[in-house]
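[recover] target loaded
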């Protein structure tokens, strides 16, 4: 497999140039008026760099490697399925935790959410780690909580007792929605023959219907395609850079109304 799949990288096979797994950057005009005096002819417009972080902004006392807080706030305001593929790459530093049981998905930060349940042994990335200070009051009864990222690009809120750092024999992943991925990401993933074959099988079985009343064969085809994308990403395959990044403008797959 030579192309990567769950945010977007340029993949290449058969002589094409592949983009390595590095944090992508996109320039956007900086917001807010700034008095810099009269511009000279040689002055360039000031730009702000927006990127997917590649290193910990903070490693807390419990060893959790956390992305920048501003990035997390933007990420959890929407559902960035293509960005999630980059975040879950095998060489990224983010702390993985796993569900101790099946729980309902919810987003306590108030951003976009994806309804459904997290599976037992599901793998998620820790984005925020909260601990109740000694003598503090906890509504849930747990002394810590997390905001975490799923493979489908959605953020979820979890209690400390609901997750473990111990990796299970066979971790699960939230199903990746093919249609939620950016077109460029999908094209790059289809450079892989196995993913292309699964994509064609899904299109044949689902006949253009991906929601609501679908056949059992369609459901299985969805699951197969999602599984191959996960395997591809975990194996270090390359994927196109996402065009839409948290805080960089544009629309996420889903965003809070």
């Amino acid at each position: 497999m030579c192309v990567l799949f769950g945010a977007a990288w340029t993949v290449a096979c058969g002589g094409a140039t592949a983009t390595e797994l590095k944090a992508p950057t996109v320039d956007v005009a900086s917001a807010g008026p700034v008095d810099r005096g009269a511009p000279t002819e040689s002055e360039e417009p000031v730009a702000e760099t927006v990127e997917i972080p590649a290193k910990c902004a903070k490693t807390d006392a419990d060893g959790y490697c956390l992305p920048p807080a501003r990035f997390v706030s933007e990420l959890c305001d929407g559902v960035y399925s293509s960005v999630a593929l980059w975040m879950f790459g095998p060489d990224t530093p983010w702390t993985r935790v796993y569900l101790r049981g099946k729980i309902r998905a919810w987003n306590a930060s108030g951003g976009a959410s994806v309804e459904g349940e997290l599976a037992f042994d599901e793998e998620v990335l820790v984005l925020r780690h909260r601990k109740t200070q000694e003598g503090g009051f906890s509504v849930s009864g747990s002394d810590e909580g997390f905001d975490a990222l799923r493979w489908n690009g959605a953020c979820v809120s979890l209690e400390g007792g609901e997750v473990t750092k111990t990796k299970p024999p066979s971790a699960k992943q939230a199903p990746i929605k093919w249609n939620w991925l950016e077109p460029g990401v999908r094209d790059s993933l289809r450079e892989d023959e196995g993913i292309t074959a699964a994509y064609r099988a899904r299109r044949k079985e689902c006949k253009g219907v991906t929601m609501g009343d679908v056949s059992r064969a369609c459901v299985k085809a969805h699951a197969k395609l999602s599984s191959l994308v996960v395997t591809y990403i975990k194996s270090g395959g390359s994927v196109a850079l996402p065009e839409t990044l948290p805080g960089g403008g544009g629309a996420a797959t889903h965003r809070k109304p």
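[recover] notes: The first helix runs from residue 69 to 75.
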